[in-house]
Amino acid sequence: MRKRVPDAVIVGAGPAGSTAAFLLAANGLRVVILDRSPFPREKLCGGLLTRKTIQTLAAVFGVTADTLRSEKVIRHESRGYLVGGRNRRPIHGTLDYPFHLVDRTVYDHFWLERAVSAGAEFRAGARVIAFNPSTSQVVTSGGDLLQGKFVLGADGVASRVRSALRRAGRIADPRGGETAIAIETFVPRTVSGAFPDYPCLHYGYIPWGYAWSFPAPERQALGILALRHKAGHRVASCFRDFLSSQPVRMEKELRFQSRSLPYGNYLATPGWKNTLLLGDAAGLADPFLGEGIYYAHRSAQLAADAILETRSRPESALQVYRSRFLRILYPELRFAHAARRLIFSLPLRLYYPVVSSLLRAMPKIWEETIQGQRRFRWLKKLNA
Ligand SMILES: Cc1cc2nc3c(=O)[nH]c(=O)nc-3n(C[C@H](O)[C@H](O)[C@H](O)COP(=O)(O)OP(=O)(O)OC[C@H]3O[C@@H](n4cnc5c(N)ncnc54)[C@H](O)[C@@H]3O)c2cc1C
After folding, report:
1. What is the whole-number distance in angstroms between the Cα of residue 266 and the centre of ligand 1?
2. What is the mean pLDDT of each run of 10 residues along the chain (384 residues)?
3. Three-state secondary structure call for residue 297
């Protein structure tokens, strides 16, 4: 085995890993970022970015939506949106700031390239198969052993780093350990026609979840998700049911892809000493809407700041990261979780009437909350 001693070993080169790698390398740390896949790689996702994500990207990378559009990272944007229910009149809304839509193959590669340009070393095809929290050593399937002053677990919903911490008794999973199962398919817009060119959410097709239809220039993303332990076994049949309400030619066999995503399994203590968990690895996706890209970038930004502050005392990194995480991100997740419990514990036929009444009564408050101009908790307006 070959031995290396970087400042930070980052496992996973999705939005969370690349953001942390960029910030740390740009501040002079020696960073190695490992991913089991060569990039660009596919990532199943709706690719919808809210305003708070664009703002985080501006703060971290100094890029604007205009730059991302001209670099062809943003493929579509829309101020319009629709929320619908089964056989009900939908609500059409207009946002003050648009939703942006990206293709994750292009998007994730773009941020990884930024991290590499800032000086991070990327190792493609380096699957981490073991992690020892006490020695901060990771082992890859190729036999490399890396020890970091800091180790960042940004390796997604089935994180090896997180499971190693759990097995070592360093973290405890939240009760219930909730994840969602999602299915998505892509339909060429030219063939199917008739899709709206704004994002649509649909309630009433599946218990403990919802379906979506998101546009992009050439293809429409159609998907569904549900809390695994409540409705996981019904996802495929509910998805077919949803597709039959859409302008999709079902006679042509569609390729369904299925993945997990965090849906309530966020950690109150996202790491241990010098090992920090980010993004999906820490369970950081909105437990109601499933939005995870913002949480990936933002948690990585908080973690990188904590590391830069604790360079000379790595064992305090978690403490600094956690205090900011508890203040900035955790309350949002808790509120979304409570809202989900409230709505999804109703009978399925009532999801849409409740969601639509709330949206009709105070559209701007909900829009601003989702866009990050208000905190979920107390729906308090921010200065952002
Ligand atoms: C169907 C679906 C639709 C979604 N739609 C949206 C949406 O529209 N908007 C939104 O905001 N969020 C959405 N999400 C959630 C979003 O995709 C995630 O929250 C986001 O990708 C999290 O980023 P991450 O960097 O934490 O993890 P990931 O993007 O999952 O990146 C993890 C990386 O780690 C690598 N890796 C994993 N294991 C190992 C290992 N053992 N060794 C080395 N490398 C490893 C992987 O190859 C991957 O590159 C969706 C999720 C799904 C499943």
Report:
1. 14
2. 75 98 98 98 97 98 97 97 95 97 97 98 98 98 96 98 97 87 90 81 98 92 96 94 87 85 97 98 97 98 98 97 97 93 96 96 93 75 55
3. helix
CA of residue 104 to ligand 1 center, whole Å:
9
8 A C-beta contact, residue 198 and residue 100: no
CA angle 311, 315, 316 (to 5 degrees): 75
Q: For position 2, what pLDDT does the model report?
A: 47
Q: What is the pLDDT of residue 249?
A: 73
Pocket test for ligand 1, best of 49, 112, 280, 301 (most atoms within 8 A of CB): 280
Tokens of 11: 């496992």
Nearest CA, atom 2, ligand 1: 45
pLDDT confidence of residue 120: 98
Ligand 1 site, CB within 6 A: 11-17, 34-37, 43-48, 127-128, 154-156, 160, 182, 184, 223, 259, 261, 279-281, 285, 290-294, 296
* pLDDT at residue 309 in the model: 98
Q: Domain extents for the chain?
A: 3-78+102-175+266-333
* pLDDT of the residue at 217: 82
Q: Quick one: pLDDT at residue 375?
A: 79
Q: Tell me, yes or no, if the pTM score tops 0.90.
A: yes
Nearest atom of ligand 1 to the alpha carbon of 160:
41
319 CA from centroid of ligand 1 (Å): 25
Count of H helices and E strands in the chain?
13, 18
Q: What is the C-alpha separation between 137 and 151, in angstroms, rounded?
A: 8
| 29 DSSP 8-state letter | -
How far apart CA 73 and CA 68 sit, in angstroms, is: 5
Ligand 1 atom nearest the C-alpha of 225 is 1
Pocket-testing residue among 22, 34, 35, ligand 1, by greatest number of atoms within 8 A of Cβ: 35
Is 3-78+102-175+266-333 a CATH 3.40.50.620 domain? no
